[in-house]
Amino acid sequence: MTWVFGRGHNAHMLYRFQSRATSDLIMLEPQGRLFLEILDKPLKGPGILVVADLPAAIQKIEAAIQAEDTQKTEAQGTPRLEEEEAEEAAPEKVWLRQRAKPLLDLMRRSLAAQQDVVWGL
Q1: Residues with Cβ < 8 Å from 31, sequence gap 6 or more?
Q2: Do residues 51 and 111 make contact, with C-beta atoms less than 8 angstroms apart?
Q3: How confident is the model at residue 5, as a pLDDT?
């Protein structure tokens, strides 16, 4: 099912991740696309992670989180430019760790219950 909010270039597609082990997880298209890219999955159409693939998928997302955490830590140790200081005054960035938590929870529960994870745009 495709859901569209807004008009023209402001329209937002939604990804729906589903498992029989838990409630549905709905993400805006940019965040859903990001996770599918991390998992090396096609961005178009529906997809599936079978139970056997879930441990590797969880590991890929955790590795991406670790990479971002390392990059963030290294950036904190470098001198700041005026432009970076201005960005800091902006609202707090939502990190991958925060965005991934609901999806990782869904995947872990699905693995524990031996249920596949499916998604669609």
Answers
A1: 15, 99
A2: yes
A3: 43
